[in-house]
Amino acid sequence: MEDENLTMLTHAVSTDLESVASAQRRLLEQVGVLAPEAVGLDSALGRILAEPIKSRSELPGFDNSAMDGYAVRASDIARATVTARVRLPVAGESRAGAVPGPLVAGTAMRIMTGAPIPDGADTVVRQEETSRDGAFVLIEVATALGTSVRPRGADMRAGDTVILPGQQLTSIDIGVAAALGHDRLMVGTRPRVALLATGDELVSAGTAVGPAQLVDSNSPMLTAAVREAGGIPTFLGIARDSKDSVRAMLEAASTSDLVVSSAGVSVGDHDWVREVAAELGAISTWRVAMRPGKPVLIGRLRNAVFIGLPGNPVSSSVTFELFARPVIRRMQGAHELHRRRMRVRIGEEMTKPAGLETYTRAVLRESSQSPDDLPHAHSSGDQGSSMLQSLTRADCLLVLPADLEVIAAGTVVEAIPLR
Ligand code: AMP
Ligand code: MG
């Protein structure tokens, strides 16, 4: 009977909360992709490709050798063995960067890796399968036709699409684009992200901390997180816990593409962010069924997307990861908005409130007892939303499903990698 009441109570409380997935979906639906821009290869790392990268020509552009050795006709060495070596006169050389003359039948041409295959040759014998005798080469293996020849166009044909839009460019992609003759690429524009902290207790890092004061750690963290997500952060400062101060700063912020504030979103007597943001724009979400981070504001400030993160540093970092990072990536046209999750096994029994999707800081250990190769996840320490030690120690955030209260050791869950 008591249990039933408890269930009803939990249910009643959770009905006015929105699930993380639903809040993310509604948020991302209203976020557009910014007009793309062209950048040089030197500035392309980590940017989101906006147009397909196509091959402008065949790659490789000419038949060339995969080995140092001798270019021959396969038919001339068809009987070669270690005990009955075939002896061919060496005529000429093909080296990288030069066009060789033709290969005369019954001869071999010295050839280097990457050098053009001479007309008349069809095969390269590796140097290790030959020995040299003055002006002659002795071939020990009946090398098959086409061996060690990289034919023109084997890698790519002109017009082939090689890298798709929406992909985040790696150093490898940049090299491939260069190989295909590109020196500029169209990429998603980096969104301008205005950041502000709120709270009378906050002072900037490096300033003396008075009694009852605390360093604003969210702003440096969020500045770095915006940059990591591809945005251009501008920190506007620390708003005081007054309606005017919060309004002045949110107004100044509203000319950017995205506004991210931290703290002042709850129901405290000095929490002004929700009220002011609703006056300047609109709030569409403010209670999400998650821990940490239940009060998180999502809406618009004029033309900017607005996300009001909770103030506790752990809540701030988790809600930034789940809501702000995908917005920044979507504005750049990224295909993958969310970090790729991994699968881990819970290393010990964990309990959590029913009805809230819970993000638990955890360290990962390789386990030999595991029935599979999944690492085991253990709590990284006190899970209070102001606890920094367990945050900085954590390898990942476990995503513990909303509907569960007790999760048995050994259960497989998803995790968001943090490093
Ligand atoms: P609030 O949402 O304003 O009630 O803040 C919740 C908690 O987060 C309080 O303990 C604040 O002191 C703390 N907090 C708020 N903003 C920051 C910040 N920028 N850096 C570090 N802690 C903060
Ligand atoms: Mg506050």
In short:
The chain is of the alpha/beta class. It has 8 helices and 28 strands.
What topology does this entry show?
Elements: H1 2-14, H2 20-29, E1 37-40, E2 53-54, E3 64-65, E4 69-72, E5 86-94, E6 108-111, E7 123-126, E8 130-133, E9 136-139, E10 149-150, E11 161-163, H3 171-179, E12 184-187, E13 192-198, E14 202-203, E15 214-215, H4 218-228, E16 232-239, H5 243-253, E17 258-262, H6 273-280, E18 281-287, E19 290-291, E20 295-301, E21 304-309, H7 313-331, E22 342-346, E23 350-351, E24 357-365, E25 376-379, H8 389-393, E26 396-400, E27 406-407, E28 412-417
Parallel strand pairs: 5-6, 13-16, 13-17, 14-15, 17-21, 19-24, 22-25
Antiparallel strand pairs: 1-12, 2-11, 3-10, 4-6, 4-7, 5-9, 8-9, 18-20, 20-21, 22-28, 23-27, 24-25, 24-26, 26-28
Helix pairs in contact: 2-7, 4-7, 5-6
The structure holds adenosine monophosphate and magnesium ion (MG).
Adenosine monophosphate is lined by residues 197, 199, 201-202, 214, 216-219, 262-266, 268, 310-313, 386.
